[in-house]
């Protein structure tokens, strides 16, 4: 599965707000009831989250994440290198416990 396939699959979920949907960036706000299915979809494509994790993020991943605003406790990060590109999926839960912002970004590593 590539970024475009992952992006198309995101449209099958019930998003409260779809903020961005373009060639290398998808962002939306998903409702709590969809979150478990979303995690299953992301794990099937990207594997287990790299954050939170007992291991430190690889330097290259940390640099990319820092350029996107960083990652904090309570948030989730999936990462997959795909040839010359990498795909990150960042999940930021809202304080209301009912919504989560998800950003999926494809970055060129060259």
Describe the secondary-structure layout.
Layout: H1 3-10, E1 15-22, E2 25-31, H2 35-46, H3 59-67, E3 76-82, E4 85-93, E5 99-108
Antiparallel strand pairs: 1-2, 2-5, 3-4, 4-5
Write up this protein.
The chain has 110 residues and is α+β, with helices and mostly antiparallel strands. It has one domain (3-108). The chain is 26% helix and 37% strand. It is built from three helices and five strands. It has helices spanning 3-10, 35-46, 59-67; strands at residues 15-22, 25-31, 76-82, 85-93, 99-108. Strands 1-2-5-4-3 form a five-stranded antiparallel sheet, with helices on one face. The protein is globular. The mean pLDDT is 89.
Give a concise summary.
The protein has one domain. The chain is 26% helix and 37% strand.
Count the E strands: 5
Oligomer state of the chains in this structure? single chain
Q: How would you describe the shape?
A: globular
Mean pLDDT: 89
Features:
single chain, 110 residues, alpha+beta, 5-stranded antiparallel beta sheet, 3 helices, globular
């Amino acid at each position: 599965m590539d970024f475009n396939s992952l992006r198309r699959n995101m449209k099958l979920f019930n998003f409260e707000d779809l903020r961005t949907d373009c060639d290398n960036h998808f962002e939306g706000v998903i409702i709590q009831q969809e979150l478990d299915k979303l995690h299953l979809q992301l794990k099937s494509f990207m594997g287990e989250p790299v954050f939170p994790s007992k291991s430190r993020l690889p330097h290259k991943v940390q640099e990319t994440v820092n350029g996107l605003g960083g990652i904090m406790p309570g948030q989730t990060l999936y990462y997959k290198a795909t040839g010359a590109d990498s795909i990150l999926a960042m999940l930021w839960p809202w304080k209301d416990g009912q919504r989560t912002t998800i950003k999926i970004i494809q970055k060129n590593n060259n």
